Automatic annotation (TrEMBL):
Keywords from the named record: Heme, Iron, Metal-binding, Monooxygenase, Oxidoreductase
Pfam families noted in UniProt: p450 (PF00067)
Annotated protein name in UniProt: Isoflavone 2'-hydroxylase
Record SUPFAM superfamilies: Cytochrome P450
Protein EC: 1.14.14.90
Gene Ontology molecular function: any one: oxidoreductase activity, acting on paired donors, with incorporation or reduction of molecular oxygen, reduced flavin or flavoprotein as one donor, and incorporation of one atom of oxygen
Native organism taxonomy: Eukaryota, Viridiplantae, Streptophyta, Embryophyta, Tracheophyta
InterPro entries: Cyt_P450, Cyt_P450_E_grp-I, Cyt_P450_sf, Plant_Cytochrome_P450_Monoox
Length: 342
């Protein structure tokens, strides 16, 4: 225990000395006090956006915070945001190297975690032109329409039998079904599951991903925390990485093993109706087609990383928005049924 206090004292002295002699004239103002070692972490409260909003209202539109060993620039004015994200967008383009990016982002090589550079630009080009373009999303509109019809039928069956309808979970399942139909041509929620065991694995992965990503990793801001035994979250990330990687690799192998159709060529040696075929394919089929043309770049890790971008759990805002719109529609419908006062 004495050794721990000695190390803590040394770190504190180094911390104070560093900030006492470093010239910070070009940095934005920093709220006082900045506690040694933890910095401004003591100001972090839930919900985070409200805590940061109070700081901005109290100290100004641009602040430099320190979350442990990491510097955080807090910007709240539209002019400053435009300056950061438009005028100096390249300066702020890099992603922080957090533990989640190491274990769940294939060593910071996916589109979400990769730093700005040639690799990131190429991934963005693939995502915007080959996978997520407006034309491709329009060709996959039938998937969304079909899933919405299935949801409407499910809601109707519950309403007819006077069952309570929990719309949040239904919209969440709708979003995941649409996403996986676009990625692999499979649905894992509802009454039309293609594979019960695969559906069970996918649901476990989704729930574990939400839990892991919503948990703050203290060692991202205080690296010495893991030396004190704070590795539980990292172990969960490693286990989740194995499950996700195995699941996605299984989808790739399944698509590879499917019988390939005969290829017809034109006089110039180009395949006929290639564009039409690509439009009808799901995400995995498109990426495997690209892998045949450039195998040195479209490796399985790159393909799984692009799949992971669409599988990333970011649908809470979408689901809440859908629930709010459904509630507003219900309120409007009830107001129309209510008899008017005479």
């Amino acid at each position: 225990m004495e050794a721990f206090y000695v190390i803590l004292s040394i770190v504190t002295i180094i911390w104070i000395t560093k900030f006492a002699f470093v010239n910070n004239k070009n940095l934005p103002p920093t709220p006082f006090p900045c506690v040694p070692i933890i910095g401004h972490l003591y100001l972090v409260k839930s919900p985070l956006y409200r805590a940061l909003g109070k700081l901005s209202n109290r100290h100004g539109p641009m602040l430099m915070l320190r979350f442990g060993t990491r510097r955080v620039l807090l910007v709240s004015s539209p002019e400053a945001v435009e300056e950061c994200l438009t005028t100096n967008d390249v300066t702020f383009a890099n992603r922080p190297h957090l533990l989640a990016g190491k274990h769940l982002g294939y060593g910071y090589t996916t589109l979400f975690w990769s730093s700005y550079g040639d690799h990131w630009r190429n991934l963005r080009r693939i995502a915007s032109l080959e996978l997520l373009s407006a034309h491709r999303l329009q060709t996959l509109n039938s998937i969304r329409a079909k899933e919405v019809r299935l949801l409407a039928k499910k809601v109707y069956r519950k309403v007819v039998t006077d069952e309570m309808v929990e719309m949040k979970s239904m919209f969440f399942e709708l979003m995941l079904n649409v996403m996986m139909m676009m990625i692999a041509g499979k649905r894992y929620y509802g009454d039309h599951e293609v594979d019960v065991e695969a559906a069970r694995q996918f649901k476990e992965i989704v729930m574990e991903t939400f839990v892991v990503m919503e948990t703050t990793n203290v060692s991202d801001y205080l690296p010495w925390w893991k030396w004190l035994g704070g590795r539980e979250l990292e172990k969960r990330m490693v286990a989740l990485r194995g499950k996700r990687d195995g699941f996605m690799q299984g989808l790739l192998e399944e698509h590879r093993n499917r019988k390939k159709p005969a290829v017809l060529t034109t006089k110039d040696g180009c395949t006929e109706a290639t564009v039409k075929e690509m439009e009808q394919k799901n995400l995995i089929e498109v990426l495997l087609k690209l892998q045949e043309t450039e195998p040195q770049y479209y490796k399985d890790e790159v393909i799984k990383g692009l799949m992971q971008v669409k599988m990333k759990p970011r649908g809470e805002t979408i689901v809440l928005g859908a629930v709010a719109r459904a509630a507003a529609a219900r309120k409007t419908y009830q107001s129309r049924l209510r008899p008017r006062a005479t």
